[in-house]
Amino acid sequence: MQILTAQELHNLAMNIVGKKLTKMGYEFQAINSQLKRHPQFVLFKKGEPTIFVLVKASNNIQNPNEYDTIWMETFKNHAKKQNAKVWFAGVGIANAESVESPVFKDQPYYEAFDDFIKIL
Questions:
Q1: pLDDT at 40
Q2: pTM for this structure?
Q3: Which residue from 26, 52, 77, 116 lies 20 to 30 Å from 18 (Cα-Cα)?
Q4: Are 54 and 75 in contact (CB under 8 A)?
Q5: φ, ψ for residue 19 (rounded to 5)?
């Protein structure tokens, strides 16, 4: 069995978030799926400000919404200059048989993603 890489876990989280955004009626102005490149999604919806969505995959399915608050302040300043909103999407992904084990390719997994945290 092959363990998912950090980039593959990130891509899985991006797919989970992207599906939710599509259901919410947003259009994607830009998508960046590279690890540590932000934002992952730049959203457009007529009559609303631009929204930057930051996606973070985590193996913590109990509390996937933790983020680096100091880094987030820097990003918020960037968003303010662009007159954009900032949403954070923490996605917990864990092995379905044992949360202590890594997530394997083509094997069942749990996902924990309830909603976006509106930062700005």
A1: 95
A2: 0.92
A3: 77
A4: yes
A5: -65, -40
